[in-house]
Design brief:
disordered C terminus, single chain
Length: 135
Amino acid sequence: MERLNNVEKGKLLADLLPEELPEIVRLIEQETKTFLQNEADFKANWKSTLVTAEFWFSLVRNIDNSINKCGSRLHKNNRWFADQLFDGYNALFTIYCLVEYSLKEECNHKLRQGIHFLFGDEPLILKIVKNTNHT
């Protein structure tokens, strides 16, 4: 897996589990809304790390814009899904959302396995953003 970049991993996840794409897009969209609606609280409680709150929220906005711009194409076209949600630093937020979702009971077992295989099972941002009880 180390040979694949994040776009390739996102495409592979979409190819393996295309039936999960609508749910994945929905949960990522839900996370962007949670962050954007509670931005001031998150920023006020942000812990000092290599990832600044400003950088994190730029990723949140980028992903939110991609979802709004592309709509249902993200879960109908595996290439669009991967290119829009896993490109560059934006992949950090997408992977964060996937790993967080994989740790929840409602996550489909096959999807959980796919996420853990491709992206790991450790949250990227260790509870930095969880201190405000919004998520």
